[in-house]
Write a structure and sequence with these properties.
Elements (H helix, E strand, L loop, with lengths): L1 H34 E2 L18 E4 L2 E6 L6 E3 L12 E3 L5 E3 L14 E3 L6 E3 L12 E3 L4 E4 L13 E3 L4 E4 L19 E3 L4 E5 L13 E3 L4 E4 L13 E3 L4 E4 L13 E3 L4 E2 L14 E3 L8 E2 L12 E3 L5 E3 L13 E3 L4 E6 L11 E3 L4 E5 L10 E2 L4 H4 L36 E2 L5 E2 L2 E7 L10 H17 L4 E11 L5 E9 L7 H12 L12 E5 L18 H39 L21 E3 L1 H7 L8 E4 L3 E7 L5 E7 L4 H14 L10 E7 L2 E7 L6 H5 L9 H21 L4 E2 L8 E3 L5 E3 L6 E2 L8 E2 L11 H6 L1 E2 L1 H17 L4 E2 L2 E2 H8 L26 H11 L10 H14 L47
Parallel strand pairs: 3-5, 4-6, 5-7, 7-9, 8-10, 9-11, 10-12, 11-13, 12-14, 13-15, 14-16, 15-17, 16-18, 17-19, 18-20, 19-21, 21-23, 22-24, 23-25, 24-26, 25-27, 26-28, 27-29, 36-40
Antiparallel strand pairs: 1-4, 2-3, 30-31, 32-34, 32-35, 33-34, 37-38, 38-39, 39-41, 40-41, 42-45, 43-44, 46-47, 48-49
Helix pairs in contact: 1-5, 9-11, 9-14, 11-13, 13-14
The chain binds 2-acetamido-2-deoxy-beta-D-glucopyranose (2 copies).
Length: 953
């Protein structure tokens, strides 16, 4: 009897422990609540864990995390918070109303691993007791008003990963260890020292750095440091970003800084550095170099500069440079910005003929440049040469001599497909998915981005994408994010406004805001690597549906009893939750098996699982090996969506293209299966047909008919040597339109291609267009006929913004991409070129009153501008309808086909004539190109401009 009761007793004992600890936490939380204004209105009742107080997380009914960002909290922190002895995370970021100093008792929170108080108004000194928080991994106190010294005790935090004290009023020197006194040199596991924008002074201690350290970001900008840059810095081989700019550092740059071969962003600007020009030739990954405004000995631009192949940005203003500007400077492949202002550079400026297409700004003002080579003068819209002899000694009116010329002041905001005029209620904003809601807003600041071209749309879309991926993985209630107003501020930080829109509701609740705030304050969200270190400052969110309550009841005896009962129920709940989690895990595993595309195809289990494919042959690996000459290099004709593409010939002489999936790509596996199943059902003369496939020896390959003339892109870019006049372009686009219409309207089930672009339209020997690459295609079930919600896939520039923002895929998304292809067809421009979107380029040049809509400037010259481009205006009209912002304003593909047919008839071409273009003869003066299909009829040209005598007619 006694034995049987033992577990019960144990449970009772545990329960009593729980009651006491839990009731303590509620008391201290209540004290915290009393000390602050605007705490969440659901902070009532007796059980912060069971009843879900916003921002409170518990483990075993003890409070382990408080995250309350951007909810307008104000007041001073009650000292009682330090009694929450199980607390691991405290994040009160972005509450500007929080003031007062940090209590020294904070050292009692022995389990604290995240202390994050970014963007509040805390002040006073940092307590020494911070050094007792031995579990601390993230200490982010940036953007407050803290004063005094950096406590030496922080050196005891052996688990510290992130130390951000930037943007405070901290002063004094950086503490280093001495005897028994700790110092920051002991933080050998810390990756981030972010101390910028303080009043730190004295020398940067040599002892701070050693080869033991694993720092990747050292940001000391905008302090009052003096003395030399310590040569020990050269020992921290892990460094990737170093900012020492805007201090008063002097003396030589230590030569061993050149050992830091992982540095990608380096700022030494605005100091008093002297001695020889530093040698940075070893820093091959360097993207961004700013050493402006120092006092180096006069020297030529060192030759190693042009060998830094990753440079995007070179800032060498007022650094004592003389001699000529090396030609190679402008052909550094990624170079965007070159600033050489205020030096003694002389001679004739020469860009060479291979200058980088990424160049955005070349500022060589205030030098001794006396001339410009003729070929360079054609590239002067990005150039500033004011206050050089070339401008002062002649009366040139060139724009590069005009001090008022604005260069590169434009930057883009990623597209939002909604009208600004969408009428939303007060305080509401139209989201990228065109819904009115109350966004959470704030500013992202990137402290050392690796690029300087703010007009590159790709950068922002990659930021948006990665952010949505993060929010989705954390299951945050976010519908979409929008970025705007990118700008470099006076600290050389890149600032971008961020709006985060709620999903499923027009407003966030407090828990949503705090969870999003934490993902950003705690650096859970990591932007693409080239953005470098960042921080976020959120604005208060003022749109919660209920106002916080000011009053609350004090804890009564009844509450304590409630707590006790609650504790019991909690134990039971935990057990149930455990069991549930266990079952879910099993379910998840089963689901994974089910989703694996080849689970039922395993050849070891016999052929029973193989799909029945109409007309498509299953090849063995050996057969493919033979037909491609063992995948010889000469058979390699390109890289497709998921692997290499080889040319081969079957025993019957038929040419095939073999797409070979890369080993071990599960995404490739899915695409493979999709493509086989789709293609085997699809038969149309404007769609590439599948000959067979190989699923053998661990390989996944698709065997297509070989399309001899390559991609439409090859021809538009001049690579293929096929010249496309207006007639040919019309014929090609009609073919492509018919292929796509077939997929939408006649294939069963209908197929949305999802990746229509000029590299996925192939041209056969008679210039019939064939739509290819179904890797991303999506067949529609009946229920999905109107739209499907999918993970966004496709190619930037061609992607329907509505689909991109809403993830609602419809056939109109293909229509959008097709519209882009139509514009590309007449302009031969990439959809996004030099940061400019093709749709905008066309619309901006367009004037419907004028001949050819005034588009001559943007048309591809090889289209034959001297010929009559009949129907071009109607072509542009339909293309622009295809790229309307909302899907329902775009035509269906059937309508596009009909309109192109009409245009062709108008231009005197029979749209249904087989191989219309081969009957046209061209005066070919081909130089013996041995492309087998060029000989009969297709004109070859090399390079950009055509001799007008060769124009077709
Ligand atoms: C340019 O400056 C260098 C160094 O100051 C000098 O040696 C050279 O003669 C100058 N060249 C011209 C063309 O003035
Ligand atoms: C835009 O940025 C991306 C990512 O850094 C880069 O790959 C691309 O070359 C850039 N495009 C231009 C036109 O500079």
């Amino acid at each position: 009897m006694a034995v049987r009761n033992k577990p019960l007793l144990l449970l009772l004992f545990l329960h009593i422990l729980l009651i006491s600890a839990q009731s303590q936490d509620i008391v201290y939380l209540k004290a915290l609540k009393d000390s602050l204004q605007n705490t969440p209105p659901n902070w009532v009742g007796s059980d912060p864990c069971g009843e879900k107080w916003d921002g409170i997380t518990c483990t075993d009914s003890r409070v382990t995390s408080i995250t309350l960002s951007s909810i307008s909290l104000s007041g001073e922190l009650s000292g009682d918070i330090v009694q929450l002895s199980e607390l691991q995370t405290l994040d009160l970021s972005y509450n500007k109303g929080l003031t007062g100093s940090l209590t020294p008792d904070i050292g009692n929170l022995k389990k604290l691993s995240n202390l994050i108080l970014v963007g509040c108004s805390f002040n006073g000194p940092l307590p020494d007791t911070l050094g007792s928080l031995s579990q601390l991994g993230y200490l982010s106190l940036n953007s407050n008003g803290f004063t005094g010294r950096i406590p030496a005790s922080l050196g005891k935090l052996t688990k510290l990963y992130w130390l951000d004290l930037a943007d405070n009023e901290l002063s004094g020197t950086i503490p280093v260890s001495e005897g028994a006194t700790p110092g920051l040199d002991l933080l050998v596991n810390t990756k981030h020292f972010h101390f910028g924008k303080n009043k730190l002074s004295g020398e940067i201690p040599a002892k701070l750095f050693s080869s033991e350290m694993t720092l990747i970001h050292v940001l000391f900008e905008e302090n009052q440091f003096t003395g030399y840059i310590p040569s020990t810095l050269g020992l921290v081989k892990s460094l990737e970003v170093l900012r020492l700019d805007r201090n008063s550092l002097s003396g030589n740059v230590p030569s061993n800084i050149n050992n830091l071969t992982k540095i990608s962003q380096l700022f030494l600007s605005n100091n008093k550095l002297s001695g020889p020009f530093p040698d940075l030739s070893g820093m091959s990954p360097l993207n961004y170099l700013d050493i402006s405004n120092n006092s180096f000995k006069a020297s030529d631009i060192p030759p190693w500069v042009t060998s830094l192949k990753s440079l995007t940005t070179l800032m060498m203003q007022d650094t004592g440079l003389h001699g000529e500007v090396p030609v190679g400077l402008f052909s550094i492949p990624q170079i965007e910005t070159v600033v050489l202002r205020k030096n003694q550079l002389n001679g004739t400026l020469d860009f060479g003929n291979a200058y980088s297409t990424h160049l955005q700004l070349i500022d060589i003002s205030n030098n001794l440049i006396s001339g410009l080579t003729p070929q360079s003068s054609s590239y002067t819209d990005k150039l500033i040469l004011v206050e050089n002899p070339i401008c002062t000694e002649s009366e040139t009116t060139a724009p590069y001599c005009d001090p008022s010329t604005e260069v590169n002041s434009s930057y883009l905001t990623p597209p939002n497909n909604c009208n600004d005029s969408t009428t939303c209620g007060l305080g509401q904003v139209s989201s990228p998915s065109c819904q009115c809601s109350y966004p959470y807003t704030g500013t992202l600041s990137f402290r050392a981005p690796s690029f300087s071209d703010l007009g590159n749309l790709t950068i922002y879309t990659s930021l948006q994408d990665s952010m949505m991926v993060c929010f989705e993985s954390k299951k945050l209630p976010v519908d979409s994010v929008s970025l705007s107003k990118p700008m470099k501020n006076s600290d050389d930080y890149l600032e971008i406004n961020l709006e985060i829109f709620p999903s499923g509701s027009e407003r966030f609740n407090r828990s949503g805001i705090s969870r999003i705030g934490f993902v950003l304050s705690n650096q859970t969200y990591k932007p693409p690597h080239f953005f470098g270190p960042y921080f976020f400052i959120g604005n208060n969110y003022d749109f919660f549906s209920e106002a916080p309550k000011g009053k609350h009841k004090s804890i009564s005896i009844g509450v304590i009893i409630g707590v006790s009962v609650g504790g019991c129920v909690l134990v039971l709940l935990l057990v149930i939750a455990g069991l549930y989690a266990f079952r879910q895990k099993g379910r998840a595993e089963r689901a994974t098996k089910k989703n694996s595309p080849f689970a039922s195809w395993d050849p070891d289990k016999g052929s029973g699982g193989c799909p029945e494919l109409k007309g498509a042959k299953s090849f063995t690996f050996d057969e493919i090996k033979t037909c491609t000459n063992n995948f010889t290099a000469t058979a390699h004709i390109g890289a497709g969506g998921y692997g290499m593409v080889y040319r081969g010939s079957l025993p019957n002489g038929k040419l095939v293209a073999v797409k070979r999936a890369q080993q071990g790509s599960t995404q490739g596996g899915l695409e493979f299966k999709t493509e086989i199943e789709l293609l085997s059902r699809v038969h149309h003369k404007n769609v590439v047909s599948l000959v067979g496939f190989c699923f053998d020896a661990g390989e996944q390959m698709l065997v297509y008919e070989y399309i001899v003339n390559g991609t439409l892109k090859d021809s538009l870019s001049g690579r293929s040597g096929i010249r496309l006049d207006w007639m040919r372009r019309l014929k090609i686009i009609l073919g492509a339109a018919r292929g796509l219409q077939y997929l939408h309207d006649l294939a069963d089930p209908p197929i949305i291609h999802r990746d229509i672009k000029t590299t996925n339209i192939l041209l056969d020997e008679r210039l019939n267009a064939k739509v290819a690459d179904f890797g991303l295609s999506k067949p529609l079930s009946d229920a999905e006929r109107t739209h499907v919600t999918t993970q966004v896939k496709g190619t930037m520039g061609y992607m329907d913004p509505e689909y991109y923002m809403t993830q609602q895929l419809t056939e109109k998304s293909d229509v959008y991409s097709f519209g882009i292809v139509m514009l590309e067809l007449i302009t031969a421009r990439n959809p996004i070129e030099k940061g400019k979107y093709i749709v905008r380029v066309v619309k901006e040049s367009m004037d419907k009153e004028k001949d050819l809509y005034n588009l001559r400037e943007v048309l591809d010259p090889t289209i034959g501008l001297s010929t009559e481009l009949q129907g071009l205006e109607r072509f542009v009209d339909i293309a622009l309808r295809c790229v309307e912002e909302t899907g329902n304003k775009r035509p269906r593909m059937s309508e596009v086909v009909k309109e192109i047919e009409n245009i062709m008839e108008l231009a005197g071409i029979n749209p249904n004539a087989e191989s219309a273009s081969t009957s046209e003869t061209y005066n070919s003066n081909s130089k013996g190109n041995d492309h087998p299909y060029l000989k009969d009829s297709l004109f070859e040209y090399s390079g950009g401009h055509l001799d007008s005598s060769l124009e077709a007619k």
